[in-house]
Design a protein that fits this description.
single chain; mainly alpha; 2 domains; three-stranded antiparallel sheet; two-stranded antiparallel sheet; 12 helices; 42% helix; binds zinc ion
Length: 319
């Protein structure tokens, strides 16, 4: 049974154009292989609970990470393309949104935003779903994709990307479960790359990509977000990766918080340093945030820790 899909995934219809695609991707367009690898990663996280694939932000982000490993930064990463054309493989059926049945055609591949206005997601064959859900068969399918569509030197990179993502995901789950503990939490022996990614996943999920201080939320269709996961007390001082020692912050607020121009009050209000408008400064919209309530995480157990905030007000904030 597995061998049928091993065979089918090795026979994907992809654009074979030697002038456009290099040896790295076996002279073929890597879109479909990357989409399938991304679906496998979501399944490995235990987050594929039915044979229905959603063009979720998580999936788009996985796809973008694979894409960026292989393609030059200038190349356009568009998951709508394989999400639509995978339907020619026979195991992937697009499910239109109600009333949009007649709009499912090639024009939806122009962007993910366009795709999402017309398509809810895709149903995959239940047999393929079983194979992807099972660790052993999933890794067999992954190996076939890597072997068929990528040069040997890049396979290892792609495999590492998948395993680091999985490790980071498991770390983020641990961090979220550590909510009840009052002690510091972190695993200093873990490679920094994995810790950072895990901490980021936990914090950004809790704040749903919204900046804790200003409330801005901006995502690109290519899977990039305006927020970063910021530590309140730096990791290097505390080895504290608890989400309560973190916040999702946009780049402006992150920089301002780390430089002491912004902080949080005991009542979870934004504080703006009076020094923000000194001399050459023009803080602009930041001033309107003074004493506004913060945007809280979806789970109150992870709300910023008062001890960490007290440290920040005392040591970093410019009063
Ligand atoms: Zn912000």
């Amino acid at each position: 049974m597995t061998s049928d899909y091993l065979h089918r995934l090795a026979q994907l219809r992809t654009d074979a154009n030697r002038s456009r695609w290099t040896e790295t991707t076996s002279f073929r367009a890597p879109h479909k292989p990357f989409l399938l690898l991304s679906v496998m990663d979501i399944a490995a996280q235990g987050e594929l609970t039915s044979p229905f694939i959603e063009p979720s932000f998580d999936l788009i982000e996985r796809f973008a990470r694979y894409w960026d490993l292989v393609n030059p930064p200038s190349s356009k990463c568009n998951m709508a393309y394989p999400f639509f054309y995978m339907r020619s493989e026979g195991f992937w059926r697009l499910i239109p949104k109600p009333g949009k049945e007649n709009d499912v055609h090639e024009s939806v591949t122009s962007s993910i935003t366009r795709l999402k206005t017309v398509v809810m997601g895709a149903d995959i064959d239940s047999e393929l779903y079983q194979l992807i859900s099972n660790h052993k068969t999933r890794e067999q399918l992954r190996a076939v994709i890597l072997r068929t569509y990528f040069a040997p030197e890049i396979r290892q990179k792609l495999l590492l990307e998948a395993s680091e993502n999985q490790e980071a995901f498991e770390y983020s789950q641990k961090l979220l479960k550590a909510a009840e503990k009052t002690m510091s939490y972190g695993e200093p022996e873990k490679p920094g790359r994995i810790r950072d990614q895990g901490f980021r996943k936990a914090v950004i999920t809790l704040y749903a990509h919204r900046c804790t201080l200003c409330g801005i939320r901006m995502l690109t269709p290519e899977g990039h977000t305006i927020v970063e996961a910021a530590h309140i007390r730096p990791w290097s001082d505390t080895n504290d990766d608890r989400p309560a020692n973190g916040m999702a912050l946009c780049r402006l607020c992150h920089w301002s918080f780390d430089r002491g121009f912004m902080s949080l009050s005991r009542q979870y209000e934004v504080l703006i340093s009076p020094l923000s408008r000194q001399e050459q400064n023009n803080p602009g919209p930041i001033m309107t945030l003074d004493h506004r309530p913060i945007f809280r995480p979806s789970d109150e157990r992870h709300i910023p820790d008062q001890e960490c905030l007290g440290w920040h007000r005392k040591e970093i904030f410019r009063k």
